[in-house]
Amino acid sequence: MEQRFDLVIIGGGPAGYEAALEAAKYKMKTALIEKDEIGGTCLNRGCIPTKTLLHSCELYAQMKKSSVFGVHGDEIRYSMEEIQGRKDEVLETLRDGIRALMKKNRITVYDGRGRILDANHVEVCAEEAMAPEVFLETRRILIASGSVPAVPPIPGIRLPNVLTSDELLDKKDVFPALTIIGGGVIGMEFAAIYSALGCKVTVIEFLDRILANMDREISQNLKMILKKRGVDIFTGARVEEIVADGSGRLICRYREKDVLQEVVSDGILAAVGRRAYTEGLFSDAFVCKEEADVNMPAGKLFIKTDRGRICVDNFGRTSVPDIYAAGDVTGGAMLAHAATAQAVNAVCHMAEKEPVFSVKCIPGCVYTDPEIAGVGMTQDEAKKEGLHVIVKKYPMSANGKSVLSAQERGFVKVIADEESRRVLGAQMMCARASDMISQFTAAIVNGLTLEQMASVIYPHPTFCEGIGESVRV
Ligand code: NAD
Fold first, then answer.
1. Sheet of 423-429: strands edge to edge?
2. Predicted local confidence at residue 411, as pLDDT
3. Regions in the chain scoring below 50 on pLDDT
4. Ligand 1, closest atom to CA 210?
């Protein structure tokens, strides 16, 4: 059975399903192939489940200190099973929403694994052996196959209870003590979840600070806040091996300033990054490597890759005409919103339309308490580039909404070009930072100056007033 399409998309995450919806706008006959659940990593194993768990944890933490607000409860407790149950309900609701959108937009969804035979043919192999294979002929292909957690080559990494975020997200009980390898975004969000639930958390980070890509002051502040909540954080420390102690616990050995140290816990989370997922994606007609060379067999199609990631140009085109790629599989920020933007822009290119998104300025958020968000340049990056910049900082302890909700900890920092006064970057660590960062993103994308941002009236009392104050100080 062969079906014909204008576009076949492999992967049903935020790159894949948003690309399908964009293609529907241009009346492209589109197929979407997904081997697992629709929604991809973001909906099933990433953004949405972690934020749902974090929401429960924050509520629990707030209820424990509700007497500050004059509200008293008797027994405050949580059930991880019920928290997980609610999370599963949220995921199902959102998956239903995407499925309905696919149907409404007449996008054909195939359950199975997509394998690219050549630039215009894809086969769908059903995961169940009994189901028949389907062959699709298509004008173009968009690869949106995403990423999977990287498993570091540490001895003992395959021991029971050494988990990746995929596995820990579904755990129906809470480890009394958890060691997290990696102080990046995943490590910090899980440290926030598990410490709020009363688990003893230890973070071991190889670099000299946690959240190494964010503003230095934010890293230091978060480290301090988590320490106060009982989280032990060791930086400049490399995990060397994990061993079982014989009584069901795990010993994690790490080297810190040339001294071998160890921490004992019930579970270990490996959060050391993610890698592009391309397993089984290409037939033998393709050669995937960093450079095409003279030894390449004749007639083979060359897909340029970089450490396993599929290389694309500014339009999302791979090295094979008519094959595009977007999202985590291409490396980069590995963020859901970046994936959507790349994928939608790729479809615009196919349809000969102007790109929708400006992908040069991608905001990043960390959903700890307080939240962290950043966009554009940090102060350190501006300094490294030798730019003359103005740095403005506003403490949220002076913001009414923050004080009345007892969330006054944090600040908003703005970096602007000294001469043009255009905003170059912003970093925030405060309540609702993830919602508020968009105002700075809009300012950077549109080349606004500090004065133009300050000319906007912010309603009172709101957290957003912190933005207005930060550009005026
Ligand atoms: P990451 O690259 O952000 O952090 C991994 C950290 O592990 C690094 O700081 C690294 O130095 C450290 N590390 C590696 N090997 C180590 C070792 N042997 N011992 C000690 N430390 C070691 O990766 P992540 O946190 O796993 O996140 C993966 C991707 O998912 C990122 O691209 C991230 O942006 C994305 N993500 C985003 C969000 C969000 O937007 N809120 C949430 C989760 C994940």
1. 364-366, 372-376, 423-429, 411-417, 389-395
2. 98
3. none
4. 9
